[in-house]
Amino acid sequence: MSINIAILVSGRGSNLEAILRAIKDGDLQAKAQVVISNNPEALALHIARKYGVHAVAIASKGLSRQEHERLVLEELSQFDIDFVVLAGYMRILSPRFLQRFRDERGFFRVINIHPSLLPAFPGVSGYDDAFQAGVTVSGVTVHLADEKVDHGPILAQESFPRMENDTLDTFKARGLAVEHRIYPDVLAKIAGGGLADLIKSPNGHAGGTHKEQSVLCLAVLPRAGFRQDKNLVEFPLYWIQADEPGQSLADDPKFLETLADILTDPLIEDLRCALPGQRGEWVKDWALAGFRWWAERQFLPGVTDNLAHTVQEALELTGLPASIKVASGTGFLLPDSASFAGLDDVAQRLRYRYFHPLTDRVLVHDLTQDKPAQERFLSFPAVHLPEPKPVEIMALDVSDAELMSLSRDRTLALNLGEMKAIRAHFDQGNVREKRQVRGLPPWPTDVELEVIAQTWSEHCKHKIFNARIKHTDLSKPEALQKTSINSLYKTFVQAATKKLSSERTDLLSVFVDNAGVVQWDDEWSVCFKVETHNSPSALEPYGGALTGILGVNRDILGTGLGAKPICNTDIFCFAYPSADLVERPSMLPTEAIIQGVRRGVQDGGNKSGIPTVNGAVFFHDGYRAKPLVFCGTVGLLPLAVSGKSGYQKHTRPGDIVVMAGGRIGKDGIHGATFSSEALHEGSPVSAVQIGDPFTQKRLADFVLEARDQGLMTGITDNGAGGLSSSVGEMAELTGGATIELNNIPLKYPGLADYEIVISESQERMTLATTDFASLQELADKHHVEITAIGEFNSSGYFEVTRDGKPVAMLDLSFLHGGVPVLELASVWKGAGQDASDIPPAGDLEETLLALLSHPNISSRETVIRQYDHEVQGASVVKQLMGPAQQAPCDAAVIKPILGEVGAIALSNGLCPQLSAYDCYLMAVCAVDEAVRNAVCVGADPASLALLDNFCWPDPVPSERNADAQTKLAQLVRACEGLFDAVLAYQAPLISGKDSMKNDFDDGVVRISIPPTLLVSAIGRVHDAEHAITMEFKSPGDLIYIACAGDSGLAGTTIAAMQGWESGLLPSLDLTGAARLYNLVHTAIKNGWIESCHDVSDGGLGVAVAECAIGSGLGAELHAQKVMESVRREQSGSDEATTVDQRLDLALFSEGPGRLVISVKPDHKKKLAEHFSGTRLIEIGNVTQRASLLIVHGKDHAPDDISVDRLTRAWKARLPFDDDGIRS
Amino acid sequence: MKKPRALVLCGDGINCDGETAWALEAAGFEPARLHTTSFLDNPETLSQIQLLVIPGGFSFGDEIASGKILALKIKRKMRDALTAFIGKGGLVIGICNGFQVLVQMGLLPFSEPGAPRVVSLTRNAEGRFVNRWVELDVKPSNRSPFFASLSRIHLPIRHGEGRLAVGNAQDTNAAAEVSRHAALHYVEDVNGSHEKIAALTNTKGNVLGLMPHPEAFVRWSQHPAWASWSRQSAAHGSGLSRHPQFPDGPPDGLVILKNARKAVD
Q1: Which of A258, A265, A1202 is most worth mutating to test chain B (most B CB atoms within 10 A of its CB)?
Q2: Which of A623, A672, A586 is nearest to A1001 (CA)?
Q3: Which backbone phi and psi does B168 adopt, to 5 degrees?
Q4: What is the edge-to-edge ordering of all strands in the sheet holding A945-951?
Q5: Which of A317, A432, A700, B262 is deepest in the core (most CB within 10 A)?
Q6: In the CATH scheme, what is the homologous superfamily, with its name and number, of domain A3-193?
Q7: Which pLDDT band, with edges at 50, 70 and 90, does B174 fall under?
């Protein structure tokens, strides 16, 4: 076998030459793909070229380590490199670099040679140091690199003597001769037999052999007729490892029988078992069966493997020892007909749909080739971690540049001001004294610095929303242009709710807990929260979305004393797949993101037993910078728990800190700080996680029962920042907490102390209890692991100890209040209104059909059907209603308490298409849409409670972010719009979230998302049976449009579809809209309205079409009335006049504040009186004939479009509709 | 009169236990939810109940195969007690994941001790999870008490592995036996099930496994067309035909559970 190598050099390159010569002479079966030097002058570059090897200089001078490594990795990524060989490379490689070459056993495929017998004399001058020390024997070491310098598993060592009359030069020359011999030798051995035999384990055995024999590989093959896809046979693989050396699993028939019983369905599947040496047999059989390609996938070591956990639990149920370890994977057999170009092509086309390089390892075999060597099969993916680093002291008395490189290298995402504030804190005499007493060094430990960084992250502390902003509004008269805003959050978000709070006595807990809580009745309250999970979803969409859902579910579970999640809502913003930037390899293809996110939401909701009742998908090319994944959950919380208020926490000093649920691993380290940065090549892979909904379901069952038994005094979830945030925040309740690291259960050994404290490993809650024994008993019943890890106290500190000795002691007031206030500036230049001529109208039918199949409008049925939206039995209005189950409803309605009449409506509003014009309008429209959608199904506008979720491009200026002031101005405008709309609708905000770094930046290209505000609403439908749906009900019913706003053309679907530029902005009369919605609500309550639908994307034309599609009935519309409905009182511009004189523009212009209503003719008079003073225009009637008929007048034939055609257009394929591998 | 007692299993990833218990109460039972761990630790519980329900959900995350590990767990501790309960005429309903558990335990269609397992519930032919309402025909010859007075019914399905497969399709005898034990057929083919079978009972008719969710149709406003029907003078358009019982009779799911209630007497 031949290996592909890349050689990194800095100098003369004598080892390089030795390797290249060995290759040339045929002594080493390898191909040198590339030689890279960090020194452009290096002689080694010439040597490489002499041997005809591609040689590249990537100068490191003037670049940060991270930046330089990024460039080197970019170069390397062009080749399929098996090993990186260091030949006198004078740079230290970062863990991030090494991670890119991690193999399935956790070793890094990076080889180094060092001129001493390691561990003696590491460092840059091995020969000198050994010589000076007067050794009589020295030597040369070839080893695998790890995170430490000149350290890692040793592959070969050879000694040479020091002669009596040696000078340093003669000593060195003798060593070099050894180097030049053993380096090619070791590489040749690797090429010949793999790494396994070379790695020495601590007890002296070669690493691989005996372990391999105890690994059994199993394939569960579906019988013919039960294979899903003719182009691909996909089936589970398992690796079972016995812990006892020499234990041969394959020889125990009873064990094999048990395995077969657990892993296969004897009626439809067959089990094949093989020891490593027998794997070739499978390949032979599959080749004979006519398959061309065989691929095997498994998770990288340490990645959450839910299937394996279940198998393991099943094995334990059957009485087998827990020491037997299981890993799962997938096998793929592909026929030749799938026409793949080669191994790489197979891997390429399986990628993202069937595996993700960040979480999985895949090997592909060509079955027409000779029997593959044993090491070409995957074996057990054991986690192999080097000894964890001991706690380090972070001396901060260094230059500004060094402070910043410390922040960058550790992914702290802290700016210079913040680093200095930390330095100033630790530099205080009284702080030093207190630390000395507890045996801590004056400067912070790495644990402390990491905890501060997590706590102070943008993600946790919302620094931008709390910044002092100098705002300049150039659209105002000069004297009024300059204002200063002290915290957008306090000025707009919190203030709006405060102004409404005297009217709203149902607001029990707003902005303080994991979710906002409102009172529901005398016994219950409901809570609501929407989170974003954008950055994780950009990297690994399935895990990103799954952990997003599970995370917001835990927010609910951690609200008050623990709420029960009763429904989910999920909103996605994606780029169109056509917007992929192929030249940016670090970005995932959009289609892969879309499909991964959808699968994640499916598993997250379905497996947790929480219905996904509502959602939205919005496409805009701007989201190629980052997809937005909003996950929301409503929870139900008792008002009183064991005599105490359920919506508050009651933790007291002396209560025990309990960690419940999953264990801690390396997964999800630096999630909070990572989401507080732009995405870049070096984004840590450890930020990727896969959730485990089953473990969390057990955890949730346990928590809710513990709550009802009164066993908890407080609870919160472990999300961003892990224990550092959950315990750090709960510590504020009592004024202090201490946790002991020795007590914390880990998934595997090898975590540094700081990693344990900040790891975001999933499915964990932090609880406070006074009765651990009872809690433990309950946890055993639910099969949930819980551990007492510390105690709440009133010391004033968050303290972390190891063996009772503190490794962190942070003053809570500094931790939570010490972050410096950010100072920012914003400049608003006024709403952009560029316009071009609108071309003449095209064919009306064609336009309407094209709009209906537009991805922002078309049916979401394929998505919705894969979400369980009815579990828990509370459903009243689903996403798709009507006799044909295809009426797309505006909001969900569920009964929070089965058997009671009241119901909750849940809706969303999102209008980022207007952000390019004016974010004030964008925000107003988002609030309006959420409110209007809720009103459409029957919610009482007086009962609404809102959430705000801002997703913004970074508004903090930097070298790479020149227009930050504009982005901040857009944020100010959006907050102003939100404030005005919230007050006009008297719908308070109860919780919210911001994600402020939604940019992609790889050092070359920087792109940003459109500023996006999601507004989510919950409201009360007093009687669920009075809820109404959007589909037309009966022929003869009259169709009205009710308006409180003017439609426009800017940002509309039709303008985007046709490529028009229009400056005609929609507008909204907020007061009028608030009045209109109240009238609509009364009319619905009185039973005067048959159907009600919001007019949104695609305008009135699409809205009416949807009402027809949903009902299977038709509609007759009068063109004149339709045009009248969009007439502006003050037209203002030519464009405005065009809209009300052209039927197509009248039908497809878009704007807030409009509803399509159908009404029984009997109610016509009553309705006219009821709505007097508002714009309510009768535009047509519902017909039995299933057709959309638009009547123009005498001299013009009507447009007549069958509902069947409308339906077919509307059910167009979405990028979601994934049918597996396409050949 | 004392209400008959129904035991609803919960825990280990079961997730329809809440509404199932609620629906049973509406049907006249006194339901109790019990965690599988507590249930398995106390087999004598079976002697105090009239109906055992294994509700829907994703037990053990649906890993390996739906219902497989929960079946394994119950089988190891309870197989004999359960067989005895069934033998004495106790009612058992497995809904969705619960049906999968009953099949994995080998209790359907033959619940006698030592009877062979002849069916599986495997991945839907389309390979996807699906949540939609379907029309179902009650097999007239089925003698189980659960479907008395019903002929065509509406219920939602919510499953990814509901395709009923007969182990040995060549064995015409087995296929015929399976057909004989069918209780519900989908009107349209929704998942590739053998003969569009949606539910099976045992020979005696006291064990029922069904993929559709009866507990999800115990009030009319759970039906996707309820808002249309309640505002229409007559049926219009296409799709699920207007339900003859609407709005005064009990919805189909409730009828099934009430039938179970009657069967106890």
Answers
A1: A265
A2: A586
A3: -120, 95
A4: A875-877, A892-894, A903-910, A1012-1021, A945-951, A989-995
A5: A700
A6: Formyl transferase, N-terminal domain (3.40.50.170)
A7: confident
Output the pLDDT for position B34: 97
Q: What fold characterizes domain A1028-1223?
A: Phosphoribosyl-aminoimidazole Synthetase; Chain A, domain 2 (3.90.650)
Polymer length in residues for chain B: 265
Which chain A residue's Cα is nearest to B18? A872
Per-window interface: A 1081-1110 vs B, CB < 8 A: 1090
Helical segments of A540-589, H only? 541-557
Tens-place pLDDT, residues B71-83: 999 998 898 999 9
Q: Locate tokens 């019988």: which residue?
A: A223
Residue B117 touches chain A, beta carbons under 8 Å: yes
- Give the one of A782, A881, A1035 whose C-beta lies nearest to B11's C-beta: A782
> Per the CB < 8 Å rule, is B215 touching A873?
yes
Q: How far is B227 from chain A (nearest CA, A)?
A: 6
Write the DSSP symbol of residue A493: I
Phi, psi of A612 (to 5 degrees): -95, 100
State yes or no: ipTM above 0.90: yes
Q: Which of B11, B123, B237 sits opposite A1111 (nearest CB)?
A: B237
Which sequence spans correspond to the domains of chain A? 3-193, 209-376, 1028-1223
B11 contacts in chain A (CB < 8 Å): 698, 701, 781-783
Q: Is it the case that residue A676 has pLDDT exceeding 60?
A: no
Contact B120 A314 (CB under 8 A): no
- Strand-pairing partners, residue B135, are B154
CA distance A67 to A75: 13
Domains of chain B by start residue, with CATH: 5-264 (3.40.50.880)
Q: Residue B243 corresponds to which tokens in the numbers above? A: 């339900």
Q: What is the per-residue pLDDT across A1009-1064, written as a single tens digit (0 to 9) for each?
A: 999 999 999 999 999 999 999 999 999 999 999 999 999 999 999 999 988 888 88
Angle at the Cα of A594 from the Cα atoms of A592 and A599, rounded to 5 degrees: 95
| Minimum-distance CB partner of B123 among A228, A306, A1186 | A228
**Å between A1019 CA and nearest CA of chain B:** 19
What is the mean pLDDT of the segment spanning A406-416?
Answer: 89
What average pLDDT is seen over chain A?
Answer: 89
The DSSP code sequence of B113-156 is TTPPP-EEEE--TTSS-EEEEEEEEEPTT---GGGTT-SEEEEE
Burial level of A305, CB count in 10 A (0-12/13-18/19+)? buried
pLDDT tens-digit profile of A842-892? Answer: 899 999 999 999 999 999 999 999 999 999 999 999 999 999 999 999 999
Backbone Cα Rg of chain A: 33
* Mean pLDDT across A47-74: 87
Q: How confident is the model at residue A162 (pLDDT cuts 50, 70, 90)?
A: confident
pLDDT at A289: 84
Of A307, A607, A781, Cβ closest to residue B58: A607
Which residue in this structure is represented by tokens 């070459």? Answer: A101
Under 8 Å between Cβ of A633 and A568: yes
Point out the residues of B that are catalytic: 96, 213, 215
Q: Is some CB atom of chain A closer than 8 A to the CB atom of B58?
A: yes
> Which chain A positions have a beta carbon within 8 Å of B239's beta carbon?
882-886, 1112
State the Cα torsion A376-A378-A382-A386 to the nearest 10°.
30
Would the CB atoms of B60 and A1034 count as touching at under 8 Å? Answer: no
Q: Which amino acid is at A162?
A: R
Q: Which of B10, B63, B222 to mutate to test the interface with A (most CBs of A within 10 A)?
A: B63
Q: Which tops the pLDDT comparison, A3 or B261?
A: B261
Residue of B nearest to A229 (CA): B127
Q: At residue A1201, does pLDDT exceed 90?
A: yes
